[in-house]
Design brief:
Blueprint: E1 7-11, E2 19-27, E3 32-36, E4 57-60, E5 63-65, E6 72-73, E7 86-95, E8 103-111, E9 113-118, E10 121-126, E11 149-154, E12 161-170, E13 179-192, E14 194-199, E15 205-207, E16 210-219, E17 225-232, E18 235-240, E19 245-252, E20 255-265, E21 270-272, E22 276-281, E23 287-289, E24 294-298, E25 319-322, E26 325-327, E27 338-339, E28 352-361, E29 370-377, E30 379-384, E31 387-392, E32 417-422, E33 430-439, E34 448-456, E35 465-469, E36 472-478, E37 484-489, E38 499-500, E39 506-508, E40 511-517, E41 524-529
Parallel strand pairs: 5-6, 15-22, 26-27
Antiparallel strand pairs: 1-11, 2-13, 3-4, 3-7, 5-13, 7-12, 8-11, 8-13, 9-10, 9-12, 14-16, 16-19, 17-18, 17-20, 20-21, 20-22, 23-34, 24-25, 24-28, 26-34, 28-33, 29-32, 29-34, 30-31, 30-33, 35-36, 36-40, 37-38, 37-41, 39-40
Length: 530
Amino acid sequence: MFPRLATFALALAIVALPAWSASTVFVPLGATWKYLDDGSNQGIAWTQPDFDDTAWLSGCAQLGYGDGDECTEVDYGPDANDKHITTYFRHQFQVTNAAQSVGLSLRLLADDGAVIYLNGTEAFRINMPDGPISFDTPAARSADEGAYVLSIFCAASLVEGTNVLAAEVHQIASTSSDISFDVSLEGLDVITPEVHITQPEAASAFAAGANILLAAAAMEPCGVIRAVEFYEGSTKIGDALNAPFEITWANVPIGNYFIQAVATNEFGFKGTSAPVHIRVLIPENTALIPAQANWKYLDDGSDQSNAWRELAFDDSGWSNGVAELGYGDDADGYPEATIVGYGPILNDKYITTYFRHAFTVTNSEFHPNLILRVLRDDGMVLFLNGTEIFRNNMPADPIDYRTLALEEITGADETNWVETCLAPTMFVDGQNVLAAEIHQSSPQSPDISFDLELLTGPSAVPELTITRSGNDALICWPRGADCYTLQATDRLNPPIAWQPVNAPVTPNGQQNCVTLPTSQTAAFYRLKLR
């Protein structure tokens, strides 16, 4: 069994390694190699620096056969349908000031599989099975024709003076049509660790005062990360000296934050993660308009057209009173706090009553989605700064002061609050006005009711549950205002593409649920604030 060096490897088309700086080319592409192509079992001695390879042939890379682009064509034996599985290669090179190289970069072309050794220590393998390798071990999979693979590893096996890079190239089968081999080796005087933040996710939101877990994954070829520091901008939050690299950022105030992690390896070189943006928002259930607030109202049966909805409208001549506002519910046991008028004729009451409430918003960008709850009897249309935001029990067509509600609200429905969700981008910093018009279902309706509250919703998304229901999957989350959209993806490795789930949401007790057919394909789900 050979000792092995820790490595990073990837195809050259991908860029996902630690950064490095090459200082010396020890073995260039196209170098001259000693090789043995007789199909013999060379055991393990051939990988050692002191092995005598004087009887081996030599030739320039690329070495191989079957592709027509070889600098040196090697032999596969007497039978084209029973070719040698393994061909051996060795290259001797000289190093001065070996301590300058903290790492090594190996660029390899090998078809099909290969194992690379530096001074008798395994440095890298590709397309080969795990465990001991013999001269008749076939490659585990075919190579990507013509593709070079890059490996970064520690320079622990590099020595001053004479060094030997050795390689064995394996066919996937004795009938394989070709082999290819070329390799370069460079000394690296700088290796910068790779680091990325794993928690929190980008675009996460938290409530003010939250304790936020900061976690990072850090890697470098020699396998030793000395520390990971976490920063918000240029301000250090804290550091973790051991894996798992994580800390808790305590009692975080409202704001926008860009978190970065800085990893330091054993050589003192530092790598910096991409920034992750998070927001810390106003806590849930903060009231912008509380229930039982004071409202301006107009109950004279007039046609107010559209101007009354606007922020700049002068309502100084209107009456005011605290909610619940209305009339006719005293006999039902829940009297109004403010009685509004319905006109001089009991059986020909005003159809529409108008309400306005001014309130101030500061730091609107730091509000989560907002929950709007309304007590209405019978129909209602709401406007924010002149723009309609919600209607209930009213026709979809344009309405005026004579438009009737769709149906009479009676019984328990008279005390039920209806809800919707509002985006904080709908509000402006400074003064805002919420305007409501309550419509009767008929001039003979005995009562109207109106109250409203506007609260901040949750900063974080409620927890999802997934259960099996026959051949379906039942995905549920706690009921509440419709502030969330269900999203799905087929993988959690970057890049992650979350897509909305196009399925109806149905109430199930205290939960909202979506039913989806099960399949053999993996799927992952999340709730995303709208």
